[in-house]
UniProtKB/TrEMBL annotation:
Name listed for the protein in its UniProt record: Outer membrane receptor proteins, mostly Fe transport
Predominant location category: membrane
Polar residues: compositionally biased ranges: 277-286
Domain Outer membrane protein beta-barrel: 372-784
Source organism: Reichenbachiella agariperforans
Region ranges (Disordered): 264-286
Cross-referenced InterPro entries: Beta-barrel_TonB_sf, CarboxyPept-like_regulatory, OMP_b-brl_3, Plug_dom, Plug_dom_sf
Gene Ontology CC entries for this record: cell outer membrane
Pfam families per the UniProt record, alphabetical: CarbopepD_reg_2 (PF13715), OMP_b-brl_3 (PF14905), Plug (PF07715)
UniProt keyword annotation of Membrane present: yes
Length: 795
């Protein structure tokens, strides 16, 4: 759908809906908040206004995330019913609604069921749905003590984790948020213990208010928090095979106004991997290179976090969050390479690579919130600062042998020092929400983002007489500067007289300046551009058990800084990598229609979504072989990439102790590319993935969880990734009044984790690659809670 058509449609819808404002004066406003026994808001609770005569539903609505609700009803007398799964229904009889009425805070009491020896308490839905967002509550998962955030993402529908732990959603890059703040720290998900996670939110089609830089969809990791007062502390120790060891400690203290807390995670691990690649070159003579390798990477990761916040009163909040990490890697790899010319072995090569990689990073986030007009309006100001550096040093030794096995020469003894001397990121933003009456809300905001980084790449060669000498032709310095100015406006509302229909119309304007600088090259690669990005969201609550939603958004995605680096990185004598400073930004249009339905409370949950995504000027990793039979890895824009798909999410709870979750995603993907003769090529393929988990709660605090993942052949711009699957199994036992938790996790239970890829769309070569790493891993974790938060009313 074209941009201007969408914009015209949005303006018409906007005009029609705003016209409802004129009718609001003839109605009565009913408002209030549903809270639980602990004083926390009950999100998405159902509020129904019932006729006195027959208790038929006159009107209804659903509370927001904090339990607040507002609705318009005709003047009169009614019964009011407030309910939510896991809580006792509250019925307020014979309420006089002749004038506006605020019910204040209504407490919903938990509904506790006892079944033989098992006590089942009220709990959150496994999946919570609100306009544009699906929240998967993973906090109570048996795998939480023995996993990290990256592990938990493996079980989120349509999400996949690649070879280098990169996260994608429906086959495209995703932006990672931590508590609503975007983070682009490498490997941060691997460093956050899953025991600290409350839920994982998936925003597949972000609206205009989301300033998304690093992806097209959003995955927001929500950490555990709450309004409870007192002291809390816990610690965990874990051991496993392949040198795995982990220690976590967390604590916090909180009263009515002040909170302070922090924690640390220390992790030791070894990644063992192996693989092979087969490459055939098509030139005057057909040559083939077969490579086999095995490696080991010993890792030590440190993660620290700190949080403090202060409330002067109920209307404001000052919050400071800080996190930092130190990552140490010691990779070693051994390669065996065979070179064949017209099926005759020409020579072999033994390659050894050893190195040391150390990284430091820090993120600080300051937030100020101020509410106005009895909570109807809110101002938020945020400052975000990030710093990271990297020092990666490794040595290559290549020894060449003749076809008969006799030694030929030491063909390479090189040393590479790859440094990121300082990657500094800053973001300043202000957002304001303003209520217009009881049915409408306006959101506006502005932000300024800047990034400055410097990479120094030193390449040295060893000479017998002179020792190490710097190769000035291969050494380089890359400086990158980025500035983004952005502002947005969004209008949200419900249709008067039909409060179950809500909508959101928004637009974001953005100016971007990208300045990749290749030191020593006079050419300027400065790229500046404007983008206008609209969004539309419609949500209809059909009844208490089902909803229908439609989302449309346009996003602009700038190329990543390393993809703009024109300098060559030398991996081996037969492969090089470099960026493309002329990459264009991607323009992404996304549509999604979803239907969500529950039966018998949350005993059965079913979600169906149909989505379409089109990417103009999609940037891809492009591979080709040059005249020297060296494979070049670089990046280029292709005319378009598109996908049309269907997603199914189903959760079943046939009995209270058993939970079955499954999801499937079927999509058709297409790429429009060109060959070396500039002839247009269209590639199309069908992708399928499924994820299933079975969780069983046994008596006496024992629980198990089995998860299974399958991915079919996945189309890429120049080839495809072959199918793969894997399964994990977890057992957990709670002891000592639930203070002690003992869990055992088996990862890659079927010894099946293997990634194979094929490049078959190239005029110069074809290749097939296989990659494997640690399989059948086990982790034993002990977690102990030393103290527990108390409610303000506790003695």
């Amino acid at each position: 759908m074209k941009f201007f058509t969408i914009l015209k449609f949005g303006l018409v819808v906007f005009a029609l809906l705003v016209g409802n404002l004129s009718f609001s004066q003839s109605k009565i406003q009913l408002s209030g908040q549903t809270i639980d026994e602990e004083g926390l808001g009950v999100p998405f609770s159902n509020i129904a206004v019932l006729a006195l005569a027959d208790s038929s539903i006159v009107s209804g609505t659903v509370s927001d995330y904090d339990g607040n609700y507002r609705m318009t009803v005709p003047a009169g007398k009614y019964h009011i019913r407030l309910s939510y799964i896991g809580y006792k229904t509250m019925l307020l009889n014979n309420q006089d609604l002749s004038t506006d009425l605020n019910l204040g805070q209504v407490v919903l009491q938990s509904d506790v069921k006892r079944m033989e020896e098992v006590v089942i308490e009220s709990r959150k839905y496994d999946v919570e749905v609100r306009p544009g967002v699906k929240a998967f509550n993973v906090g109570a998962s048996p795998a939480s003590e023995s996993s990290n955030a990256l592990d938990m993402l493996q079980n989120i529908p349509s999400t996949s984790v690649g070879i280098d732990d990169e996260v994608s959603f429906r086959g495209r890059q995703v932006a990672i948020f931590i508590d609503g703040v975007e983070s682009d720290v490498a490997n941060i998900l691997e460093q956050i213990p899953a025991s600290e996670i409350e839920s994982i939110e998936v925003i597949s089609t972000p609206s205009a208010k989301y300033d998304v830089k690093n992806g097209e969809s959003v995955i927001n990791v929500v950490l555990k928090k709450g309004n409870r007062q007192g002291t809390f502390a816990n610690a965990a120790l874990g051991v496993g095979n392949d040198n795995y060891k982990r220690a976590n400690a967390n604590g916090k203290w909180r009263n009515n106004q002040f909170e302070i807390g922090g924690g640390t995670s220390q992790k030791w691990d070894s990644r063992l991997d192996n693989g092979d690649s087969y490459r055939t070159s098509y030139s005057e003579d057909t040559t083939q290179q077969d490579q086999y390798y095995a490696g080991r990477n010993d890792m030590y990761n440190q993660y620290y976090h700190f949080k403090t916040q202060y409330r002067m009163n109920e209307d404001n909040l000052i919050q400071l969050n800080a996190s930092s990490g130190i990552n140490n890697f010691n990779p070693e790899k051994e390669f065996d390479v065979e070179y064949t010319n017209d099926e005759v072995l020409d020579r072999t090569l033994d390659r050894s690579r050893k190195g040391e990689d150390q990284r430091h990073w820090f993120w600080g986030n300051f937030l100020f919130k101020q509410a106005f007009r009895e909570g109807k309006s809110e101002l938020r100001a945020r400052v975000k600062y990030g710093y990271s550096d990297k020092d990666d040093e490794f040595v290559f030794l290549d020894s060449t042998f003749n076809a008969d096995g006799s030694f030929r020469e030491v063909s390479r003894l090189d040393q590479i020092n790859d440094k990121m001397t300082g990657d500094i990121r800053q973001r300043y933003s202000v957002d304001y929400e303003h209520g217009l009456g009881d049915n409408y809300r306006v959101e506006i905001g502005a932000a300024y983002w800047l990034r400055n980084s410097e990479r120094i790449y030193d390449y040295s060669t060893y000479h017998e007489n002179n020792g190490w000498e710097k190769d000035t032709n291969r050494s380089n310095q890359y400086i990158y500067a980025e500035k983004v100015w952005t502002t947005y406006g969004q209008f949200n509302g419900t249709v008067v007289g039909l409060e179950s229909l809500s909508y959101s119309l928004g637009v974001r304007a953005e100016h971007t300046s990208l300045d990749p600088q290749a030191v020593g090259i006079e050419e300027s690669y400065l790229n500046q551009y404007w983008r206008l990005m609209p969004s539309i969201q419609l949500a209809y609550q059909m009844d208490e058990s089902q909803s229908l939603s439609f989302n449309y958004s346009t996003k602009n995605k700038a190329p990543n800084y390393y993809r703009l680096n024109p300098f060559v990185t030398y991996y081996s004598p037969t492969a090089i990598s470099y960026g493309n400073p002329y990459l264009k930004p991607q323009s992404i249009n996304a549509l999604e229609l979803s239907h969500d339905k529950t039966w018998n409370g949350d005993q059965v949950y079913l979600s169906n979504s149909v989505y379409y995504k089109q990417v103009k000027d999609a940037d891809i990793r492009y591979r080709f072989e040059d005249e020297n039979e060296i494979v070049n890895f670089t990046y280029t824009n292709v005319d378009a990439a598109a996908s049309l798909g269907w997603e199914l999410i189903a959760n079943f709870r046939p009995i209270e102790q058993l939970r079955i979750n499954t999801s499937m995603n079927l999509s058709n993907a297409a790429y429009t590319t060109y060959n070396s003769m500039q002839e247009q090529l269209r590639r199309r393929g069908t992708n399928f993935s499924s994820k299933s988990s079975l969780e069983y709660q046994l008596p006496m605090g024992f629980s198990t969880q089995l998860t299974m993942n399958y991915f079919s052949q996945q189309l890429t711009a120049q080839g495809y990734n072959e199918p793969y699957y894997f399964a994990d199994f977890v057992m957990r036992q709670k002891l000592l009044d639930d203070k002690l938790s003992v869990s055992m996790k088996f990862a890659d239970l079927l010894h099946s984790w293997e990634r194979n890829s094929v490049v078959d769309q190239s005029d110069t070569f074809a290749s097939a690659n296989t990659y494997q790493r640690n399989s059948v891993r086990y982790y034993l974790t002990l977690s102990y809670r030393f103290s527990k938060l108390k409610w303000a009313s506790d003695s």
